[in-house]
Queue: 2 jobs
Job 1
Amino acid sequence: MDNIGEHPPEITPPTETWEVELQKVSIVRRILNSRKWYGADWWFVAVSSVLVVIFIIIAIFPSLFAPYDPSALVGPSFLAPGAYPPVPELIVSNTSSANSLKDLAVTSDQPRPTISVVQGGNSAGALNDAAKEIDNQIKNESGGLRLRPVIDRYATVEEALQAVVDGKDTAAVVGSDEFVRLKAQYPTLREGESIAGGAKTAGGFLLGTNDIGQDVWSRLLWGTRVALIIGFSSSLLSLIIGVPLGLMAAFIGGSFDRLMSLLMDSMYAFPGLILAIAITAVLGPSVINVIVAIAVLYIPTYYRMVRGQTLAVKEDVYVEAARSIGARSREILQRYIFPNVIPSVAIIFSVNVADAILTGAGLAFLGLGLPPTIPDWGIDLARGQRFIQNAWWLITFPGLTILLVVLAFTLMGEGLMEIFNPKLRER
Amino acid sequence: MHDDILYSIRKLVVEYTTRAGAVKAVDDVSLDIRRGEIIGLVGESGCGKSTLGKALMRLHTGPAKITEGELWFDGRDLMTLPIEEMPEIRGAEIGMVFQDPMTSLNPVQRILDHLTETIQTHEPEVSDADARTRAEELIERLGIRKERITEYPHQMSGGMRQRVMISLALALRAKLVIADEPTTSLDVIVEAKFLDLLKELQKEFGLTILLITHNIGVVAEISDRIAVMYAAKMMEVGDVNDVFAQPKHPYTQGLLRSVPNILLDGAELYKMAGAPPDLSHPPSGCRFHTRCPFVMDICREEVPPLEAIEGAQSAACWLYPSVMAKRLEKEHA
Amino acid sequence: MTPIGFVALIIGVPALILLGYVLITGSTGLRRYILTRIVLTLPMVIILGSLVFLVMRVVPGDPVQSALGPKGTPEMVQRIREQLGLNDPMIVQYGKFLVQMFTLRFGNSLIGGHRPIIDEMSERFPATLELITPASILALVLGIFGGAMAASHRKGAVDYVWRIYAVVIYSLPIFWLGLMLQLLFGVKLSWLPISGRIDPIIGTTLVHRTNIYTIDAIISGNWAALYSVLEHLILPTFTLGLILSGIFVRLTRINVIETLAMDYISAARARGIRERVLVYGHALKNALIPVITLIGLQVAILLAGAVLTETVFSWPGMGSYLVERISARDYTAVQSVIVVFALLVAMISLAVDVIYSLVDPRVRY
C-alpha cells in the first residue's frame, strides 16, 4: 500500500485506436466498408446515385439516345408500342398501267402526276424521299423523264383513295395495312409496289407514337432535359436564397427574425402547387418563370431548417464554451454550425429536386407554365388523357418516367438521411 | 446452490456491435448476489456496470447481446428461458430504478396509470379499483400524498419522481431491485433522503438491492458489500468495511485514494495516471496493467482470475499468492 | 340556407363548442396559448392574402383587356375597370380587398356571365370537402398503421416494405396515379366511372341541400343517387388518399422509432410491459403527438393534391375551379379562390394546434 505514493511506472503507449486506423483507409475502402454497417440504406444511395447520373447524362445529351426529333411528326398517329409503321405502297386505279413510282415519271411537256397522301403519318415522308431519289436517278438518263409529283394531302385514307377513284389524283400512297382494310370499298383500285423510303422510320417506335405522330420514346428522353433543368435550377435558387436568410435570421434575431419567420411560416403552410399556379399565371408561360415559381415554394424549407439548426447549435453549451475562450463568430460558424447544417442541406436538396420535378410536371399537366412546344412529360400526360380510351401508352410511359426520375432523387435523399441522422441509428 | 444466494452471475459476456466490430462491454464477469443484502457495484463511466445491470433482466435490445454466461436467478438460469417469458419476471421479480426519473417516466401518462398498468400487466385479475388502492398505498408509503397520484411527471419534483420510480419497482414486491445510478441526477440533500428511504424499504420488504453507481460515497453509506469493475471486468469484491479499510486491488486503492478528504488539509488531489482503455482493443493480460504502479511481467501477459484473498474478500490481481496459486494449479493440472 | 352556410354550421358549431371547452377547463397557460394562436392566425391570413393581392396586381398588361379579348373596346375596358375599382389608388384597392376577404364578398366573375363568385364557390367548395374528407381519413389510417408496423420491425423485411411503399408513393405523380386508375378500372375493366360526381341523369333527381351529395342523398333517402355518388367517389378518394398516406407512413415511422428509443420505453420494458403494448400503446400514442402538428402542414399537400385530382377526374371542386379560371384569365375569381384556400389552411392549422394542446398534457397542465 505504501507503494501508491511512488511514481507510477512507464505507461505503455496505447495501441492505435480504430478511429485512427479508419482514417488511414482510403475513401473507396471506406465506402465499401460502410456497406456492411448501413445495410440496405447503402444500397438505396448507391443505386439511386447511379440512376441519377444516368438521368443527368440523358438530360445533357438526349440526341445520343433519342432516335427521332421529339417535335417531328415522324410516324403515323397512335402507333402502339413496339410497332413498326406500315409500309407505304402505291395505289393506282385498275385501268392504270403504272406499278411503281418510277412508272409515273413524265416528260417536261406532260402534266405532272398528282399523288394523294394522308396528312401526318409516314406516307408523305416516304413518298417525298422516294420521289427525290428516283428523280435523281432518272434525270441524267436519256428520255427527259422527270418524277416530280404534286402531292395532295387529305385528312383521311378514305378521302385519299376516293380522290384516285374520282380521277382527281393519278395515284395514292397509303400504308399497306390501311389499304388492306379498305380494299373492299374501292374495287376499282389495286395495289402497286411498296415505296422504299421513309427509311428513317424503319427502326420502329419503341413506345409508340402519339396523336400527331411524334415518337413517344424520343419525347420521353428529351423531356428529361426540361425536367432536370427545372428541378436543379429551382432547387439551387431556393438554396441560395433560403440558406443565407436562415443564417441571418438565427444570428441577427430580433424583429428581423420574427418578421421573416412569420412570412416563411405562412408560405410554408400554404399549398405549394397553388402558389406556383398563381405565380406562373401571372408571369406567363416560360421555363424561367416556372423555375422562379417553384424556387419560391422551397425557400421556406431551407430557411426553417438552417435557422433551426443554427439556433440549436448557437445555444449549445460547447459553442458558449468556445465563445468564452474567444472564438469569433466566423470560426464558430465554420467549425460548429456548418458541419451540422451541410448534411441536412444536402438531404433537403436531393428531395427538393425530386419535388420540383413533380411540381413542374404538375404545372405542365394543368396547362400552365411551360410553352407547349417544349417536350415535357406533364404536357404529354395531359394530351394523352384525351385518348385514354384507345391509346393507353400515351399516359403510361410519361408518368412512369416521372416516377422513376423522382424516385431516384428521393431514394438518394432517404438513404442520405438514414446515414446522416444519428438519432435514427441503432442504439 | 447456496440458499442465501439470490442471483448468481456466471461468466457473463455482453457484446455490442459497432462500426469497428464487436466490443465486449462485460467480459467474463461472475458475481453472487446474496439474499437480503445491499451490494454496490462501482466503477468509472464505461466500465460496464450499467450494461451488467441491464443484462440481469435481459433488457438489451438492438446492437447489444448477451453472448455467453449463465444467469442463475432464484434457482433457474434465465438464459435458458425464451425471451418472450422475460416480461413475466421483469417488474414482478426483478425491478429496476433508473437514473433519470424525468426521462424514465412517460410524460403523457399519469403516475396512477404507470402503477396500475404495471400491476395489471402482471396480475390481470386485479380490478381497476383494487389496483388504484394498491397504487395509492404504495406512494403513500414512499412519502407522496395520494391525491397527487393523478398528476403527470412534469408536475412533480425530481426527488418525488425518483420515489415514484422506486414505487414502480416495488409495486409487485420484486425480490431484487437493481438501482442504476439512482442518485446521480439528485442534489445532495435529496440524495441523502433517498438513501435513507432505500435502507428503510430494504428492511421492511426484505429487498435485495444491487446499487450501481460511480459514487463511492453512496456505496459507503448503505451497502453491505461492494464490487469493483474496471474495463468490463470484475476487479474486487468484498465486504464494504473490509474493502474500504484494506483495498486489495491496486485499482480500488487508487479509487479510494482519489476521493478528496476534507480532513487532509492542503494535500494535493490524487489522480490515477492514464485513462480507461478502449474496449474494442483492450490491453493484453490484466486490463489495469497500463496504469498499475505494481505492474509485473505476468500482468501484461495473462488475465488474473478473481480469487478469494482474505476471508470474503476477492480480487483479480497477480500480486496475491492465492491468485498465483490458482494459476500454478492450472499449470500442473 | 345556402350550402356554404350549412357547411359552415356543421363545422363551426362543434368547433366553437370544443374551443369553449378547452378555454374553460384548461389551465391559464393553455388559455394563453390558444388565444395567442388565434391572434397569430390573423396576420398569417393577411400576409397570404396580401401576397395574392400583390401577385395579381403585378400582371403585365390589363387583366380586363385580356379577359375581354379583341371584342373589348377601350370604353368597355374603362367602364369595367371603374366598376371593379381597378383605377383606384393602390391603398384604396388594398383596403377594399381586405374587407372583401373577411366578409367573403368576392364580387363577380370577370368572365362567363358575371356570376357572383360566392355562388359558384358554394357549389364547388362542398365538392372539394366531399373529396378531401374521406381521402384524409384513408391516408391517416393507412399511414399511421403502416408507420407503426414498420417501426416495430425496424430493419426487418416489414420495415423495408413500408419504407419502399412510402418512397414510391411520395414519388408518384398524383395525376398519373389517377390516370392509371382511370385506365384500369374505368377503361379496361369498366368497373367504375372516371369523371364527375354523379351520373348526370340520376343527378337530376337529387335535392341539393348542402351540396355534399352523399349527405344530401342520405337525407332524402335517394339510394340510387347515393350509390352513384359513392361510385364516383371511389377512384378520386383512393388516388388522393393513397398519395397522402405515403407521407404519414414516413412521419409516423420516424416518430415511433424516436419514441421507442426513449428512456421511458426502456423503463416500461423493465417493468414487464409487453413489446406489442409498448409499440402500439405507448410509443405510437406519444409519437402521434408531434404527428398531429405535422398533420396541419399536410393540409397544404392535401389541397395541392386535390387540385390535381379534381382536374384528372373532372371533379367540380375548388381545385378545378381555380385551374379553369386561370385559363380563362378570370383574375378576380382566381384571387378569391386563393384567398379561400388561405383561410382554409389557416383555420385547419388553428384547429390542429388546439387539438394538439388538448392531447399533450405537458401543454395542457
Job 2
Amino acid sequence: MSGRTFAEKALARAAGKPDARAGDILDVRPDLVFSHDNSAAIRRIFEQTGAPRVVRPERVAITLDHAVPAPTRQHAQNHAEIREWVQAQQIGAFFEVGRGICHQVISEEALVLPGETILGADSHSTHFGWLGAFGAGIGRSEMAALWATGELWLRVPEAIRITLRGRLAPGVTSKDLSLCILGRLGADGGLYQSIEFAGETLAALSLDERAVIPNMMAEAGAKNAYLPPDGAVFDYLEARRTRDYTPLYPDPDAEYVAEHTLDVSALEPQIALPDRPDQVVPLSRVIGQPVQQAFLGTCTNGRLEDLQAAAEVLRGQRVRCRLIVIPASAAVMLAASRAGIIDVLLEAGAAIGTPGCGPCMGNHMGIPAPSEVTISSANRNYRGRMGTPDAPVYLASPYVVAASAVRGAISDPREFLT
Amino acid sequence: MKLEGKVWKYGDNIDTDVIIPARYLVTTDPKTLAQHCMEDIDQGFAQSVQPGDIIVGGSNFGCGSSREHAPISIKGAGVSCIVAESFARIFFRNAINIGLPILESVEAARAAQKGDTLSIDLVAGTITNQRTGQTYQANPYPPFVLAIINAGGLVPYTRNVLGIKITG
C-alpha cells in the first residue's frame, strides 16, 4: 500500500475519517472559515437557507479588507450590515477596516494551525499552506452553507510534488520563484490539485517569503498548496496559538500525479507580462519598459520584508513615477514604522495607504488611467484587474517594483543593491 | 432537461475579472451584473446575448477570483449553459451552487464555432452540434454534485439538509 499525500491526510482528518484517497468526496468540518467584505452578500444567502443561527460562530472569522475605508455609500452600507451581523451572531473573530488583509491577519492571529483545514470565500485561501494547513477557496453560497451546517463537501485532490533545491541568489526572491513555477505549470497546470512542496530551499526562506509561494499557486488553478512546517513555523505560532495542533507531513511513498524538481540557485528575477500571471519571462526581457504606476502591497507581497526590500532600493532615491504602498496589515505597518522603513518610503516619494487589499482588484486607491502601465507586487494581472481594461499590469517582486519606481521604467533591482 | 442555444465562443483561461470586473461587485443583483457581463473582453455580448444562448470556452474557464458574481452575471444574461474543455475549480462549484448548468467536453468545446447551435441533454450529458451533426458525451457529474443540482442549487440543498420546510 502506498503512502498518503498531505491533502489526503489533511482532508481525512477534517472529515473525521481514518483514511482518504485522491478522488474521495468527503464532508469536511473545517477548523476555521473566513470571509471579507463579501460577508454582507453571504449573510443574505445564509438567510435564504432558513438556518436560525451560525452553528460554530467561534470558528468564523470576518475581515473588512477589500474596499477599506469604504469608497462609496454602497460599500459603507455593506460594511455596516456586516458589523451588525457580527454582533448578532457573536462571530468569533472580526477585524475592522485597517487591521489588514484576511490572509495576513488570520496568520498573525494564529487562527489556523498546521494540519488544520481552513476554507475561505477568497481565491487566495491557498495562502495557508505556508504553515502546513489545508487552505482552499470556496464561493459565497458555500460559505453560507458552512455557516448554516458547519460542513461542506470537498473532493480529495490529486497532488503534484515540487522539490526545490539550492538557495536563491541576492535580489532574487520567492516571488521570482513562484512566477517561474507558474510560468512552467501554466494557469491550469495545477487545476483541481494539491501542490505540495519539498526540498531544502524552503527551510532557508523566512516566513514572510514562504507565504508568497502557496498564495501564488492559486494562479495555477490549485485547490491548495503545502509547505512542510518546521521549527521556524512552530516558534512563530507558539506565543500566538490558543489550541494544540498536530502537523501533517506527506509519506515518503505518497503517490503524485506529477513530480518536478527545480534548482533555484541560478534563478534570475522574473516578471509576468500583461494580461496573464503565467505569462512569465526573465526580467531582462522587458528592462526599460516605461511605467506610470508602481504598486507594492497585497496578500502576496505586502509584508514587513517586502517593505524592507523596497526600502533597500529606495533609500536616498526619489521615485520617477507614482509609487503606492499598502501594507498587508496594521501590524506590518507598525513594525515598518518602528524600523524606520516608512520614513524611507515617504522620503522617496511613496504614497502610503490604509492596510488592506488596496488597488489589487480595481476597487479604489490606485486605478490606472487608460493605457497607463503598472508594475505590481500582486498575484494577478488579468485584463481589467486593476479597474481599467486597457491598462497593462506587470507582476514582479517588491525589489523590482521599487527599482522600477525609481527609474520610471522596468529595472533590475540588483543595480541598487550592494 | 434539454437546452438549445446559439454559441458564443471564447478561448482558454477566461478569467472572472473579464467575466465581471470587480468595479461592479458591490451589487449582487443578477440583472445589473448581466449588463456588464464579459464587458472587458467582448463589449457586444451583454447587448446581443439572447435567452438560452450557450457560452463555449477553452481550458480553465472562470479562473482567477472566487467571485460568485461571475456565474450569476452569466446566468442573469440569460445564458442556459456553459460548455468548456475544463473549468477553474471555484467557478465550477459556484456555477453548480447557483444553478447554472456547465459541462466539460474537450471535443465539443473545440469543435464549436461562434453562431453554431448546440442541443444539450443535461441528464444524459450529451452535446449535439447542429451544424455538424456530431454528438459528444460530457464528463459525468460526481454524485454529490448531482444531489445539489437535483435540489435546485446549494441553498435549497442546505435547507433540505437542515430539514427546514419552505413555507409561503
